[in-house]
Amino acid sequence: MKNVISSEFETVYIPKGLCVLSHYPFFNGFSVFLNHIYRVSCSPANSVPLEKYVSHFVHNVPLPLAGHPGVIYRLGLNNIKFCLSHEFDLPTLNFSLQILFRCLEIEDVITLFGLVLMERKIVLVSKHYHIITPVAEAIRALIYPFQWKYTCLVAFFFFFFLQNAMFRFFIPVLPEKLKAYLEAIVPFIVGMHRSFYDEVFLADDVMNIVSFSLVSLPTFFKTK
């Protein structure tokens, strides 16, 4: 018996995700890029594979030099500027601090600012993944000219049981499988999702900011 193969092709749709991983907090630039890719993918007039856009962005856009004028990348009708500040210069932020003040009251921001300066153990908790990292990065940027010097995780494991004030760590979004990190004896800034907050043990010296979410700013705070 012969197999009958239809000559007509059917269109099959499958979900596709795209994530940008980088050492640098170019949040606004990456957001514009991903939004552009999404719009292109939804356009029936587009004939260029999405992989072409991604390949060009990854391989052809140079990394800006610290302390030099930024790199401007033309993407459709948008200009994306990437820039890095020198270690001893006023930091150049590639994201808005507005999100911090939309999530927390002024009194809470001041309290959080003081806790960071005192190198306390801080946990930021929210049910919205997309705002945890910007809030953590914003509060870290606000302490300039001070810096939150953090140790890489490999070194942290090595010195985990050594009570030395020079070691601290910064994890914008903590995976659930690494929740044991919250029992560390060193200072830290950690962001975590609300879904497993009730499952973790937090010592008395851990300061937690729980369940912040975006709120609308008053009219006189809004930017044009």
TrEMBL record:
- SMART domains linked to this entry: DENN
Keyword Membrane annotated? yes
Q: Which organism is it from?
A: Reticulomyxa filosa
In terms of InterPro entries, this protein maps to: cDENN_dom, DENN_C, DENN_Domain_GEFs, Tripartite_DENN
The alphabetized UniProt keywords are: Membrane, Transmembrane, Transmembrane helix
Q: Which PANTHER family match?
A: DENN DOMAIN-CONTAINING PROTEIN 3, DENN DOMAIN-CONTAINING PROTEIN 4
State any GO CC term: cytoplasmic vesicle
Domain UDENN spans what residues? 1-224
> Which Gene3D superfamilies did the record assign?
3.40.50.11500
Name this polypeptide is given = UDENN domain-containing protein
Q: Which residues cross the membrane?
A: 150-171
- Gene Ontology biological-process entries: regulation of Rab protein signal transduction
